[in-house]
Amino acid sequence: MTPEIFRAGKQVKAEQGPTRNSEMYEMEAIPTDKDIVLGDLPGGEGVTGVMSGVDKISLHKGAMKALQNHAEGNYPGMKIAVASSADTPFAEKVGRKALSLLEVLPGVTVWQLLLRDWDGKDVNQIGRQPPLSSNKAMTHFPRLKEATGVAYDRMLFFDDCLWGDHCGMVAQSCREANGKGVVTVRTPSGLGEREWERGLKMYVKPAAKPTIERSVQVALPGAAAWMLTMQEATAAAAARRQYFPTLDDPEPAPPPQEDVSPEQVLATIGMLPNVIVFFLVAGAIREWIGSGGGFFRNEDT
After folding, report:
1. Which of 114, 101, 116 is CA-nearest to residue 51?
2. Model confidence, pTM
3. Strand ranges across the sheet with 217-219
4. For residue 223, is pLDDT > 70?
């Protein structure tokens, strides 16, 4: 479960071969509060791992970075949710318990973040028992839209499933009347930093070039219109060109004076996604992060 976020798998000795990644339904037991593993987090010590028998479940580095930035308020207006195809009720329980124990900052768990974003309401769609199914495009996402009130074209979805193309199905089926839909990113090896940034770039690309009317209004496709001063509009265009030179100008932009992250660009032009959806499939990911995957990673101790 949550390959985008977690990694889970049995780690054998070097002479025996590489790490084997396990599915959540393959875990030995549902973790308990006594099964936590402490480690370093920004600001102090926190829960960085959860044991299930001999397997340790932890967050992929990319997922950890994204969630830490979110917890610290670096993505204003952005919220997170989970769509999971956990194979069995047991796998769902393992994943939910891991989410409730793993921390992104000392004292702040992933589950607390998921509830905080929605005023304490659990909007997450986890499992495949009715009314959910194995088809996320037909069940998970329509229910997620209904629960959150967020349109499909304001969602960014990371998925690591290897046995089907959930990204393709969601992108095809989950669309608004304007023809725009969920922006999807496949992460076969888990949610990594590169995949995270690629997703943000993909999300902003449809809004390539805002039109300025009467020098103050910037109309952004797929979103409400923001009223900006000419100075703000100019700054937004400059920031966009600096990071995405091909979006506005046919000629290469001059080298940037300083590093500009996708998050900074998106925040500058008011285009941060309303909802980031992490696909908690019933699987564990490899050692790392990355969209294409999940939250968890699993290692044998």
Report:
1. 101
2. 0.66
3. 211-213, 217-219, 226-227
4. no
